[in-house]
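Re: [ENG-882] Designed sequences occasionally contain unexpected residues at chain ends

Forwarding the minimal case from QA. Structure tokens:
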């Protein structure tokens, strides 16, 4: 009986995958910043932050069963895809990802929000806000819908 290798194999060939394999490199038409000193420049690296799409079912279930908290949006950057919430009880600011915003409007600084929390892997030491809903919009600010329409 022949022993089998446990290293990952590419489906097209019997050679093991490595950081130098073409599947892990960025596409040729992608512009890469030459100022970055990172040794991983040019490789596709997955984000360590769990989004709604990458969160496990057990983490989603735990968050759904948890209590609802209230807070104020400290900042939110639509182009970066994340922001921070200041809890009403005065704790440390909480990270919020764009995929966890519910509703029609993009959160703005000063908006009152309600949310649930979910731990962030791998160590589960930090938390992020999930199921974020704007309860009261900050007065006097323009609010933008996800489709780009502004309202006063």
């Amino acid at each position: 009986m022949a022993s089998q290798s446990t290293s990952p194999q590419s489906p097209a060939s019997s050679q093991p995958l490595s950081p130098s394999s073409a599947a892990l490199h960025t596409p040729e038409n992608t512009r890469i910043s030459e100022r970055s000193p990172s040794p991983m420049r040019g490789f596709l690296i997955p984000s360590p932050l769990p989004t709604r799409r990458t969160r496990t079912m057990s983490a989603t279930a735990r968050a759904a069963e948890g209590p609802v908290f209230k807070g104020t949006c400290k900042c939110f950057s639509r182009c970066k895809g994340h922001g921070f919430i200041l809890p009403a009880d005065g704790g440390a600011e909480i990270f919020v990802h764009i995929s966890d915003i519910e509703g029609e409007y993009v959160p703005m600084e000063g908006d009152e929000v309600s949310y649930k929390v979910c731990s962030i892997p791998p160590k589960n030491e930090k938390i992020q806000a999930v199921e974020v809903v704007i309860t009261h919009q900050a007065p006097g600010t323009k609010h933008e819908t996800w489709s780009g329409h502004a309202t006063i």
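QA comment: On inspection the terminal residues look reasonable. Residues 33 and 143 are 33 Å apart (CA to CA). Proposing we downgrade this to a documentation issue.
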